[in-house]
Design a protein that fits this description.
InterPro entries: AP_beta, ARM-like, ARM-type_fold, Clathrin/coatomer_adapt-like_N. It comes from Ilex paraguariensis (yerba mate). Belongs to the adaptor complexes large subunit family. It is found in: Endomembrane system. With about 475 residues, this protein is mainly alpha-helical. The chain folds into 3 domains: about 190 residues, Leucine-rich Repeat Variant, CATH 1.25.10.10; about 60 residues, no CATH class; about 100 residues. It has 27 helices and 4 strands. The strands form 2 sheets. A two-stranded parallel ribbon has the order 1-4. The protein has a two-stranded antiparallel ribbon with strand order 2-3. A hairpin with a 6-residue loop joins strand 2 and strand 3. Helix 15 runs parallel beside helix 21. The termini are far apart.
Length: about 475
């Protein structure tokens, strides 16, 4: 009886699967018939050619190499059927880089399609041309990109922006100026989608040509909230670098004040000379070290961490920076004001990376009295996935070391949960050790007593407890039950 019931259930399951797949192309994945593809590609009927192309794309999706059909597929690019043309271009996009010489045979068709009335066809042609990585057609592709950058269709202009990094990868020194001018045109576009793609092209092709940003700075800031999320992340970084390069660091910012108020040691590699910031606040030499510190911070943002850290010595890092006496004020600088204003709504973005990028701008540029607005958005991100939570906690850890009072009233948000992975538990404990105050130390130690039974973090709790005892020894002595910790 049970055997019969199992067979019936299996039959019903198969039947329901077949019903759900009616009217779809799912069968192409279950039974890819390679033998019948070649005759179908040579058919006179568009429906049969479409069937063959769909089978090829299904095989590509499953990891098969079907590049041997390239010559037969290429000749169908001249088809008048929009569906056939779309499938042909999808195939060519996948194999154009692997079979560039054969793709060249259809370059005339690509150029013809660049003038098609349908914007989708124009975009497909441009994407395929840009995918052919050959120097011999690079001038033709550059002309096509320049033309499409001024196309009436937003989608075509966005494809033009996406094609520019591919052109740049060919190392066309003689065309660098033209490529950068095209990026400038796309950065001034009215469409947020095009601006986001242009920002990605700028970051890839000419990240140091900040004059392109200066021409469009105000409008880029105004467009920022409407750009797609991943474009926002890139554009925020570009706008921040531009402001630092033009105006310097904000002297009222919590980042600069927190760095300048502490003692730092900078060692000159290869030398016995050390540079130490003197603890006497009235010492005139402190201004020199603060200026050097500001120069180093500016350089790290303008050059990027990889290039900056590759410098061999402390002195080289300092002298490579901008004018260290260049500071600005968030209250009087319009460029800083508009950047802070346009990134404020992004603190509540659905994308955690956008929130972190916007919080970074406020950390670097906002006056100390306005920095509190980043706290709640960052705490809200702690409700996300463990991978996102870890990145957020790493950023919060940096903030709490510089300004513990920012998160001191929200210490309960960093209490350990039994479902937290070990690395998140460790970060939370470190943050708690930074933000503990006289009023919160009792609650924190009571929480430690509960969590101390977890062997995986017992050592961490002991270490953090010792740190807190050293920091707040007067209050710790009166905490009941501390001895059991």
């Amino acid at each position: 009886m049970f055997t019969q019931f199992g067979a019936t259930a299996e039959t019903l399951s198969k039947a329901s699967t077949i019903v759900f797949r009616i009217g779809t192309d799912a069968h192409l994945y279950d039974d890819p018939d390679v033998v019948s593809i070649a005759p179908l590609l040579d058919s006179k009927f568009d429906s049969e050619i479409c069937e063959a192309l769909k089978r090829l794309l299904a095989l590509i999706a499953q990891g098969f190499d079907v590049s041997n059909f390239f010559p037969q597929v290429v000749k169908n690019v001249a088809s008048q059927s929009l569906e056939v043309k779309k499938l042909v271009y999808l195939y060519l996009l996948h194999y154009a880089e692997k079979r560039p010489n054969e793709a060249l045979l259809s370059i005339n068709y690509f150029q013809k399609d660049l003038g098609d009335f349908n914007p989708l066809v124009r975009a497909w042609a441009l994407r395929t041309m840009a995918g052919i990585r050959l120097h011999v057609i690079a001038p033709l592709v550059l002309l096509a990109v320049g033309k499409c950058a001024r196309d009436p269709s937003v989608y075509v202009r966005k494809c033009a922006a996406n094609a520019l990094p591919k052109l740049h990868d060919l190392r066309l020194e003689e065309s660098t100026t033209t490529i950068e001018e095209t990026i400038g045109v796309l950065l001034s576009d009215k469409s947020p989608g095009v601006v986001g793609a242009a920002a990605a092209a700028f970051a890839s092709v000419c990240p140091n040509n900040l004059s392109l940003i200066g021409r469009n700075y105000k409008r880029l800031c105004e467009t920022l909230p409407d750009v797609e999320e991943w474009g926002q992340i890139i554009l925020i970084g570009i706008l921040l670098r531009y402001v630092i390069a033009r105006h310097g660091l904000v002297k009222e910012s919590i980042m600069l004040s927190s760095w300048s108020s502490e003692s730092y040691n900078f060692e000159n590699e290869g030398s016995d000379t050390s540079f130490a910031r003197k603890e006497n606040a009235d010492d005139p030499d402190n201004g020199i070290y603060d200026s050097e510190l500001a120069s180093m911070i500016s350089s790290s943002y303008l050059e990027g961490p990889d290039k900056y850290l590759s410098r061999s010595s402390y002195a080289e890092r300092v002298t490579s920076g901008m004018d260290s006496s260049c500071y600005t004020s968030a209250k009087s600088n319009d460029d800083v004001k508009i950047l802070l204003q346009c990134t404020s709504p992004l603190l509540w973005s659905h994308n955690s990376a956008v929130v972190l990028a916007a919080a970074g701008v406020h950390w670097i540029m906002a006056p100390k009295e306005d920095i509190n607005k980043i706290v709640k958005p960052l705490l809200f991100l702690l409700r996300s996935s463990n991978s996102s939570k870890y990145v957020v906690l790493c950023n919060i850890q940096v903030f709490t070391k510089a300004a513990p009072s920012l998160f001191s009233t929200h210490f309960e948000e960093f209490f350990i949960s039994s479902s937290d992975p070990y690395r998140i538990k460790a970060l939370k404990l470190e943050i708690l050790s930074s933000i503990a105050t006289d009023s919160s130390i009792s609650a924190i130690f009571q929480e430690f007593q509960v969590k101390f039974r977890e062997r995986s973090i017992a050592d961490w709790i002991t270490q953090v407890s010792g740190t807190l005892c050293l920091q707040l020894n007067k209050k710790v002595l009166g905490v009941p039950g501390l001895g059991s910790v």
